[in-house]
Design brief:
It is a single chain. By secondary structure, the chain is mainly α. It has helices at 15-24, 28-35, 42-55, 60-72, 76-95, 103-127, 136-139, 156-183, 189-196, 200-210, 219-233, 237-240, 247-272, 278-299, 310-335, 338-344, 348-360, and strands spanning 3-4, 12-13, 143-144, 151-152. The strands form 2 sheets. A two-stranded antiparallel ribbon has the order 1-2. The protein has a two-stranded antiparallel ribbon with strand order 3-4. Strand 3 (143-144) and strand 4 (151-152) form a beta hairpin. The relative contact order is 0.16.
Length: 368
């Protein structure tokens, strides 16, 4: 195949010859290697690359990528549902420990159990996939020109802001976990879950303003209904016939609501940082959570060692289920909008009543 080009002129490529060559080629990189001449000037090389990129015909590998792109569109919803189930089960496991250990202590031990899992993922990609996952933090801000294929490297300022944003996002995730554990001291798992999922309205709002995500006519009414359901969790006196609000319910509901607002911002931030490899996010959140919760537990003099037996099992279960929930929610946010992910997870509100009844033998009342 011949490619003719002169400086300052457009490249002339015969479409028939290009199609025939692509059919014989196994990889597009072979085409570039064959076509480009080391003696070409920089202008000619860019013109050739632009022409090849525009006229590239999809081979078998490209067709597979197109197929994968089609079914990958539907990964986000089931993965988001699985994430909710993992988080619910982790809260149920935490409920068995909350009366015996301080939330900071529980958080410290469950973060400690996450470290081997997070390191396993990183080592797998490093040894078998030959991928340095930490490099994705700096590559996430690179911009690729669709016409020329030129890559604009990240500036030092962009790398600093991306790294800082990742750290703050992970710290927000740690804060959400601790607040949810605190809320379980005053609320049942089902009540806390209902309030946690009332943040759909906040997530949709954050996504609309910061990510330019669309706000549909269906998502808004459902979000308001769910927010009203969270209000019923506080058992207002005009509905229960009482004279005043339940103090424990108000404290627990307030903590859960704060956690809900923070997690809504967390979803939007993770959507913004979706180009960063998920193992980096999990590993960094684990290390920051371990240090933060450990220091706070020691400073507040609430640090205790877990008893042997069932306590070790429940702490290990909390760590495994929590990291599974984080892993699946990060994957879901790579394929679906933040508001949709939070909206889909509303189905977990139904699941939590069944799971709470099976494991904790709590029967839901009419307000639930």
């Amino acid at each position: 195949m011949k490619v003719k080009a002169r400086p300052g002129s457009e490249v002339i490529v015969d479409p028939q010859e290009l199609t025939e060559f692509l059919r014989k080629s196994q990889d597009f990189s072979e085409l570039i290697k064959t076509t480009l001449n080391p003696e070409d000037s920089e202008v000619i090389r860019r013109q050739k690359l632009r022409a090849l990129q525009k006229n590239k015909i999809s081979g078998p590998s490209e067709q597979n990528k197109a197929i994968n792109k089609g079914w990958k569109r539907y990964i986000g919803i089931p993965v988001a549902i699985a994430s909710g189930l993992f988080f619910i089960l982790s809260l149920i496991a935490t409920k068995n420990l909350i009366g015996k250990y301080h939330p900071f202590t529980i958080s410290f031990w469950q973060y400690l159990t996450r470290i081997p899992i997070g390191c396993t993922f990183i080592l797998y990609y490093w040894i078998f996939e030959k991928v340095n996952v930490f490099q994705s933090v700096f590559d996430s801000t690179e911009v690729t020109d669709e016409d020329s294929g030129d890559v604009t490297p990240s500036t030092t300022r962009q790398k600093i802001f991306t790294s800082l944003g990742l750290v703050l996002t992970c710290l927000a995730g740690v804060a959400v976990l601790v607040m949810r554990f605190y809320a379980l001291k005053y609320l049942s798992v089902a009540d806390a879950t209902v309030i946690n999922f009332s943040g759909t309205l906040f997530t949709i709002g954050f996504g609309y303003f910061f990510l330019d995500e669309k706000c549909g006519f269906v998502t808004l009414p459902i979000s308001f209904v769910n927010l009203f359901g969270a209000f019923l969790i506080t058992r207002p006196p005009f509905l229960t016939g009482g004279t005043e609000y339940n103090t424990d319910l108000l404290i627990g509901a307030s903590i859960s609501l704060m956690a809900t607002i923070v997690v809504s911002a967390y979803y939007v931030a993770m959507r913004k940082l979706r180009k960063i490899h998920y193992t980096v996010t999990i590993f960094l959140a684990t290390m920051l959570g371990l240090i933060e919760c450990g220091v706070l537990a020691v400073c507040l003099d609430v640090f205790t060692l877990p008893d042997l037996g069932w306590d070790i099992f429940w702490i290990s279960a909390v760590g495994f289920l929590a990291i599974s929930g984080n892993l699946t929610i990060i994957i879901a946010l790579k394929f679906e909008q933040a508001g949709i992910v939070n909206l889909v997870r509303l189905i977990d509100v139904v699941f939590v009543f069944f799971l709470e009844y099976i494991f904790l033998h709590i029967i839901p009342d009419r307000f639930r």
